[in-house]
Amino acid sequence: MRGLAALAVALFHFDFIRAPHGYVAVDFFFALSGFVLWQAYHDRWRGGHGTVAFMRQRVVRLYPLFLLGMVLCTCVAFGRIALGDDGVPSPTRILYSLPTNLLMLPSPVTHALFPINLPAWTLFFELVASLLMVLVMFRLPRLGLVLICALSAWIMVPVVIAHKSANIGALWREWDVALARTMFSFSLGALIARLPRPAERPAGWVGALLLLAIAYALGLFVGFGLGVSIPVKTPEIAQYDLLCILVLWPVLLFLGSRFECPAALERPAHFLGEVSFALYAVHWALIEPFRWFKDQAGWNPLLCAVLYIAMALAVSWMAVDFYDVPFRRWLNRSATTARGNGAVPSA
Question: Membrane spanning segments where (predicted)?
Fold first, then answer.
């Protein structure tokens, strides 16, 4: 499900008719993160796993691929500038944004939080939500998480309705709804993680239906070969987005945590899951080169979309195996060595 959600985001950014609701996959990612982090760390936190250790692990998990995405996007941006493309920020704005962006912090000099790699705003807010989880949410009863969800929805829902879409959060003026959007799904995922857990997760047709359900909801079947123009901002689209965020994603996450996909789909499902974060982190850098073939060279749009996804998956696989995993191992070894030498205070 996570891999399909990442594919939907990448396709939406490349050519929105290929996955017209791909942007609401972001809310599924937030819910999944809340669920996974609660299950993985809550008991360890109660056993003394502190805030510093928790946040260090979150940065180690997110930063290597975030950094790779920023480097690739910066190279592509300067390449586009050299070719005379005026659809990219000026070199001055890029250079002024890079010091903060490379630290996973929003740019103070542009309207976009991360002007070179626009989707990176979600990673910044995921770090914010992670910090709030370890400082606040781990200490709250279930009712406290329900109140966070309610407050976040109270902020988010009117903005989405007024905007006529939930595709919002990447700009400075949208920071409040971006935070609300993050915290609603993040807290909801934590609530689902606190429900009784099944002893077994049966694999079979239910798991296959869940994969079909999230692919269908994100619009992965819409527009492939149809060439249909789909509006992205209407009252009906806003209602659909809110239905996904408020109802469908929690239901799919709950069921997905209780069933597995069939054995026949296990290998491709595992692959998509393993490369999903890398795909999210690097796909923005590959968009414009393949758009050139679609818009300037006149290639078939469907063929360009297929080639784009194939290249994005290949780059993501190489990034995970040859860069992300070794980088994270090195970071963890360095942190362990530093603690052993007394350079890093124990968490």
Answer: 24-41, 62-83, 112-136, 143-163, 175-193, 205-231, 237-257, 269-287, 299-320
Measured between alpha carbons, how far is residue 115 from residues 82, 96, 282 in Å?
Answer: 18, 11, 14
In order, the DSSP letters of 214-252 are HHHHTTTTSSTTT-----SSSHHHHHHHHHIIIIIHHHH
Q: What is the largest CA-CA distance in the chain?
A: 62
Distance CA 206, CA 319 (A): 32
Burial of 208 (0-12, 13-18, 19+ CB in 10 A): middle
How many other CB atoms sit within 10 Å of the CB of residue 162?
12
Print burial letters for 51-75: b (CB count within 10 Å at least 16), e (below 16): eebbbbbbebebbbbbbbbbebbbe
Assign 49 to helix, strand or coil.
coil
Query: Would you give the DSSP letter of residue 321?
Result: I
